[in-house]
Structure formats: structure tokens, C-alpha cells
């Protein structure tokens, strides 16, 4: 399936945001955009859409080439009748389709613009137009204010409705303590997450605080995305002498190694002024040893005090590292994670649901945990640790077992537990990366099953020391285990037992699910101003109908070590066993048929 995501126009230079040691590079482009401070405004997106140009005398049809927050490049056929030229003020009308710019920009636009440059080729004449008001301010005034207002009003109504229903649960608690107690616990847990998340603030940047950072990228069969990942990690607004990138390939069986070598050589040739030769290292594992081994191989050669783990299909924004390290000004902080958004959100309904889920999970749930300096999962796409702590725990991490079985996934949760036991772990919302999420239904289900198994394993581990942490957070943590584990039983009771035994439709239970779904959706609309918000509702219904039933399966198969979404050695071994079982089944069937015919 072809992934759908905004495609930015390639810059002539690969490392546009790295501080220039020669001071030759201009920091302001011809549009007047400061490339160092206005990253989002400087991005030009590839976009071919009809554009209508209005002057006092005429309307001209044109075609866009690329679009940014501040302007647009358009082309008109030379044989077209037109009377515009450089320096004119015109009104442009166009529609930005979904998936071509960041979320929230997919709307109709009718905006005054100035033609600031023109050029031509054999067939077309091109006009570069600068908007009188950038699209961010345009949508804030025209559309986003109304969306924020609507989301705020409905969030208030939904919250009060949930509280009202839970007051009712308190009143009837004595009649069914288990069921009403569960509903009260669920509501208090979720509402408290949203409440604390609303009060969260990122640690501000201190431009003088730039500790040394080694970025480690473990790679296994990521030929499609690895080059973009490497460029994103190196193209950081961070001192050259304090940032290195280490790529570790875990014996990929596709073209990943070739792609890695290609981009490293290209960077060395085109960006020689940025000391790429000494700032990027490539390690090739002799055989497939797993993600943890790859990460530790990178840590072993890292030279800086902080190590940042970045997944091979994740892409950092240019100031991600500078933002990510700021919480380490507190010496008690052992690990930090940033925010991960979905890169391919517009691909299909599966990725749209995940876009809402990811944002709320980071911006609200992890933000709430960060209030107590106790984030329970420093996520794989972007997380940073003190190197001395990783060195301290790496051997236990590599040899980790659970009930006699090797732990081969859930690496981020596992390392977080090692750090969290004696140190603080926090969330930094301003450190942003995007990642590619599964767009295939089967792959998505396998990923979710793997995550549930690792969540179960690491939650049991964390439960052994979490009671020593801040009391309110400790209570919330244990509630966060009870709620999803008991959820399948609660659904069976309300959706099957109650209708059959009491002949009553579970309207209250269904209303509660819908209210919680709208809570997630309206939070997303409030912060992101995106049309995808409605998929928060679909995700919650999808969770109740399908994903919730993975929990009992995960509890019964926690020992499985296969990823399901990639060909690790465990997966290959599992496939061999499955193939052998099928062959044995076919052989037994053939033997039975032969025996029947012989009689």
C-alpha cells in the first residue's frame, strides 16, 4: 500500500539546519523566512492543484508547483491570455487537499498575495507569490478559532456528563460494588490523565545548554525510510562538535546496507564543511542479534554523555535534539522522551485512528506522567538517556528474561524500567519526531499484540517498585493496570450477561464508552485542528470490539518472542515451525486418503 504523507520539496542542501561553521550560508531565504527560527514556515510542499488568480479585470486559471505557509509557486501556459506581472497584487483561490500539508491546513483558501518573482521556460511562465498573511494566521482567524471553541465547549459538556454518570455509579455502588467500582476507577483514572496533561508544560530551551549527544539508529530491513531517518538525525540545529550519529544495521536481508552507505557517502561529499566524516559511524552486525544488541553496539562506541535512540522509520524535526536534552539540566533526570506524531496519517482509516491515539497518548497520558517525573515508557521513536546509566544496565537489559523466556521486544519499556527504578523519567512535548505506522490491518494487529505482551511484562516489573514513587501517581499506575486487564470481563458482563439475564439494554455502559471516545476526539480537535479528530471515536469503538480481546490472549501467550511485523530470527524460526506443522498435517491427510482408497 502506498503511504500518504506531506512531501516537502527537496532542498539544494542536505543539512540546511546545521550551524554553518564557515558562516557562508544565508539564514534568510528569498521569501524573508529565517531558516533557523521558522522551520515550519520554510517548508515547501510539493502540490499540484488548480489555482484561480483574481485581478480587477479578469480571472486566470493556473497550476501550483509547490506551497508553503508563506507563499506559493504557480505556473501558467504561455498561450493563456493574462495581464499579470511581477509586483502585482492579486487574490488567489485554491483548495489544499488532505495529506499534502500538515494537519489543519486542508481547507479552502482565498487570500491576497503579492507576485514577487517570475521566470519562464519554453511552455510555461512561473510566478512566485507571497501571501499578505501567512496561512497559519489566515486559518487561525478564519477557521481554527471556531474549531477550538467548538472543541472546548464539547469537552466541557462531555466531562460534566462523565462526572454526572460516575456520581450515579457512587449512588448505586452498594448494589454492585465490582461493576460500579470499576466504572468509577476508569473515569477517575482517565479524567485525571487529561486534567494533569492539560497543566503540562515543556522545559524551555536554554540556548547555552548543549551537552554532547550520540544518536543511535538500529536498522533492520528499512531500505525505504533509513536515508530520510539518517538525514533527519544529522540535520539538527545543534553544535557540530556535540552531535554524532551512529547507524547499526542488524544484518538486514534487503537493500538497507546499500542505502545507508549511499547516503553516508553523499553526505561526506556534499556536506564536507560539516565534519560529516567524524560525526557519522556505521556498524554492521555479523548476524541478526536483535534490536537491543544493535543499540548496545552503538552505545559501546558512543563518545558523548547522552545517548538518543531513534527508530529507523522515524524522522526528527530540526530542533528535536535541542529540545530533547533540556530536562537533563535536572541531575535527577535519567531519561527523556519526545512526542511522536504519525507521518503517514492520511493513508487510510487505520493510520488515521493511530494518529489520534498517538497524539493523545503522548500529549495527555505521557504529559500527565511527566508531571510526577515518572513516564513509564520512553518511546522507541525518540528517547534519550544518560550514557552512564545505559552502560550500568546494558548487560541486565541484554540478558533479560521473564518467567524463563528471553525478552526480545518491548526494549523501550524495559530500559525505562531500569532507569525509572532509581531516577526520574520525563516527557518533552517540544521534541518532535514523526514515524511510519502500520497501514495494513494484519500488521497493525500483530504490532498491538506485541505491545500488549511487553506492556504486561514490564507493568509487572514496574509494579514491584512503583509503590515507592509519589503516592497519587503510584495509585494511578496500578489503576492503569487493573482497567485494561479487567476490561474484557466488564464488556462481557455489560454486553452479554446483563441483556440476557436482566433483559436490559446496556445503554449506560454504551453511553460511557461513547463519552470517553468523544473526550479523546475533542482533545485532538482542540490541539490539532484536524479533520482526523472523528477517528478518535472510531478508534475507541475499534478498541472495544477488537483490540480489547487481545489482552486475554496476551496474558496467555506472554512468553512468545516473535515480532510478527518483521523477519527477526525468532519470526523466521516460528515460520519454519508453522510450515513444518502444515506439511505434517498435509502428509497425515494424504496418508488417510491413501488408506481409505486401499480399503
Question: Secondary-structure blueprint of this entry?
Answer:
Blueprint: H1 39-42, E1 45-46, E2 50-54, E3 59-67, E4 71-77, E5 89-95, E6 108-120, E7 124-131, H2 135-171, H3 177-198, E8 213-219, H4 226-234, E9 243-249, H5 256-270, H6 276-279, E10 280-284, H7 291-301, E11 306-309, E12 314-316, H8 320-324, E13 333-342, H9 349-371, E14 383-386, H10 387-398, E15 401-402, E16 405-406, H11 411-420, E17 424-435, H12 441-463, H13 471-502, H14 507-528, H15 535-545, H16 550-556, H17 569-598
Parallel strand pairs: 8-9, 8-11, 9-10, 13-17
Antiparallel strand pairs: 1-3, 2-3, 2-5, 3-4, 4-7, 5-6, 6-7, 11-14, 12-17, 13-14, 15-16
Helix pairs in contact: 2-3, 2-14, 3-9, 3-13, 4-5, 7-10, 9-14, 9-15, 10-11, 11-12, 12-16, 14-15
Could you explain the architecture of this structure?
- This protein has helices at about 40, 135-170, 175-200, 225-235, 255-270, 275-280, 290-300, 320-325, 350-370, 385-400, 410-420, 440-465, 470-500, 505-530, 535-545, 550-555, 570-599; strands at about 45, 50-55, 60-65, 70-75, 90-95, 110-120, 125-130, 215-220, 245-250, 280-285, 305-310, 315, 335-340, 385, 400, 405, 425-435.
- About 45% of the residues lie in helices and about 20% in strands.
- A hairpin with a 3-residue loop joins strand 3 (about 60-65) and strand 4 (about 70-75).
- It is an alpha+beta fold.
- The strands form 3 sheets. It has an 8-stranded mixed sheet with strand order 10-9-8-11-14-13-17-12, sandwiched between helices. Strands 2-3-4-7-6-5 form a 6-stranded antiparallel β-barrel.
- The protein contains 17 helices and 17 strands.
- Among the domains are: about 45-135, Thrombin, subunit H; about 215-465, Spore Coat Polysaccharide Biosynthesis Protein SpsA, Chain A (Alpha-Beta Complex), CATH 3.90.550.10.
- Helix 2 (about 135-170) packs antiparallel against helix 3 (about 175-200) and helix 2 (about 135-170) runs antiparallel to helix 14 (about 505-530).
- It is globular, with a radius of gyration of 27 Å.
Amino acid at each position: 500500500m502506498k503511504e500518504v504523507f506531506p512531501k516537502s520539496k527537496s532542498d539544494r542542501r542536505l543539512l540546511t539546519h546545521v550551524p554553518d561553521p564557515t558562516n557562508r550560508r544565508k539564514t534568510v531565504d528569498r521569501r524573508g523566512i529565517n531558516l533557523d527560527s521558522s522551520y515550519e514556515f520554510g517548508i515547501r510542499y510539493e502540490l499540484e492543484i488548480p489555482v484561480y488568480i483574481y485581478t480587477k479585470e479578469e480571472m486566470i486559471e493556473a497550476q501550483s508547483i509547490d506551497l508553503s505557509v508563506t507563499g506559493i509557486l504557480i505556473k501558467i501556459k504561455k498561450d493563456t491570455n493574462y495581464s499579470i506581472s511581477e509586483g502585482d497584487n492579486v487574490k488567489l483561490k485554491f483548495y489544499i487537499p488532505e495529506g499534502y500539508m500538515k494537519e489543519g491546513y486542508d481547507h479552502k483558501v482565498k487570500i491576497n498575495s503579492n507576485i514577487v518573482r517570475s521566470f519562464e521556460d519554453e511552455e510555461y511562465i512561473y510566478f512566485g507569490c507571497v501571501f499578505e498573511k501567512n496561512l497559519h494566521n489566515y486559518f487561525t482567524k478564519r477557521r481554527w478559532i471556531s474549531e477550538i471553541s467548538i472543541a472546548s465547549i464539547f469537552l466541557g459538556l462531555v466531562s460534566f456528563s462523565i462526572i454526572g454518570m460516575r456520581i450515579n455509579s457512587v449512588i448505586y455502588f452498594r448494589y454492585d460494588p465490582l461493576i460500579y467500582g470499576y466504572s468509577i476507577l476508569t473515569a477517575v483514572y482517565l479524567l485525571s490523565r487529561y486534567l494533569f496533561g492539560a497543566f503540562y508544560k515543556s522545559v524551555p530551551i536554554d540556548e547555552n545548554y548543549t551537552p554532547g549527544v550520540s544518536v543511535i539508529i538500529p536498522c533492520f530491513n528499512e531500505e525505504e525510510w533509513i536515508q530520510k531517518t539518517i538525514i533527519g538525525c544529522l540535520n539538527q540545529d545543534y553544535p557540530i562538535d556535540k552531535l554524532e550519529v551512529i547507524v547499526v544495521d542488524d544484518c538486514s536481508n534487503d537493500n538497507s546496507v546499500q542505502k545507508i552507505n549511499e547516503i553516508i557517502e553523499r553526505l561526506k561529499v556534499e556536506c564536507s564543511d560539516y565534519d560529516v566524516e567524524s560525526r557519522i559511524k556505521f556498524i554492521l552486525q555479523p548476524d541478526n542479534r536483535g534490536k537491543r544488541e544493535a543499540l548496545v553496539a552503538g552505545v559501546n562506541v558512543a563518545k558523548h554523555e547522552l545517548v538518543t535512540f531513534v527508530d529507523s522509520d522515524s524522522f526528527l524535526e530540526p530542533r528535536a535534539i535541542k529540545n530533547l536534552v533540556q530536562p537533563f539540566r535536572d541531575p535527577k533526570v535519567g531519561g527523556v522522551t519526545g512526542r511522536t506524531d504519525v507521518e503517514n496519517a492520511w493513508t487510510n482509516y487505520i493510520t488515521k485512528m493511530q494518529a489520534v491515539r498517538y497524539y493523545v497518548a503522548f500529549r495527555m497520558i505521557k504529559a500527565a506522567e511527566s508531571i510526577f517525573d515518572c513516564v513509564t515508557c520512553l518511546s522507541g521513536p525518540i528517547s534519550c538517556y544518560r550514557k552512564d546509566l545505559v552502560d550500568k544496565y546494558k548487560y541486565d537489559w541484554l540478558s533479560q528474561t521473564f518467567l524463563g523466556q528471553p525478552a526480545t521486544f518491548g526494549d523501550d519499556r524495559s530500559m525505562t524500567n531500569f532507569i525509572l527504578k532509581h531516577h526520574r523519567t520525563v516527557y518533552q512535548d517540544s521534541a518532535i519526531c514523526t514515524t511510519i505506522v502500520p497501514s495494513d490491518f494484519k500488521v497493525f494487529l500483530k504490532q498491538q499484540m506485541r505491545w500488549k505482551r511487553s506492556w504486561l511484562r514490564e507493568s509487572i516489573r514496574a509494579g514491584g517498585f512503583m509503590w515507592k514513587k509519589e503516592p497519587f501517581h503510584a495509585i494511578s499506575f496500578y489503576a492503569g493496570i487493573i482497567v485494561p486487564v479487567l476490561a474484557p470481563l466488564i464488556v462481557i458482563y455489560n454486553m452479554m450477561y446483563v441483556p440476557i439475564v436482566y433483559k436490559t439494554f446496556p445503554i449506560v455502559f454504551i453511553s460511557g464508552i461513547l463519552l470517553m471516545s468523544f473526550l479523546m476526539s475533542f482533545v485532538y480537535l482542540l490541539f490539532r485542528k484536524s479533520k482526523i479528530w472523528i477517528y478518535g471515536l472510531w478508534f475507541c469503538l475499534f478498541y472495544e470490539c477488537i483490540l480489547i480481546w487481545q489482552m486475554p490472549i496476551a496474558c496467555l501467550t506472554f512468553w512468545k518472542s516473535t515480532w510478527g511485523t518483521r523477519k527477526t530470527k525468532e519470526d523466521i524460526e516460528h515460520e519454519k515451525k508453522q510450515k513444518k506443522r502444515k506439511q505434517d498435517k498435509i502428509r497425515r491427510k494424504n496418508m488417510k486418503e491413501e488408506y481409505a482408497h486401499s480399503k
